[in-house]
Fold this sequence. Notes:
It is built from six helices and no strands.
Amino acid sequence: xxxxxxxxxxxxxxxxxxxxxxxxxxxxxxxxxxxxxxxxxxxxxxxxxxxxxxxxxxxxxxxxxxxxxxxxxxxxxxxxxxxxxxxxxxxxxxxxxxxxxxxxxxxxxxxxxxxxxxxxxxxxxxxxx
Length: 129
């Protein structure tokens, strides 16, 4: 058995991701992409495990000065802009936005300048991507 490392926390994290993904209505392929980003990045894994335990963000990981809370709020603003309602209704799926924040952080680490432009562009209603 030498050389075998078993980390049950990562299995728990994967199961948590699947449960959140099912609740949020995310596809299996989308969740696979997010899992790849989480599992290959120890800091993002730590943030995700913290989220599963506390249902809040640790916010130790930052990219271009943005933490997961910032990305979550950005997701919320985009949701409100698309629906043009200015507030979060009961149909607003917070877990989907949490997963989107993690996915955005993963993507932002790969291409920080593109995501920084998206976040800071002040997208108007005619500029949604």
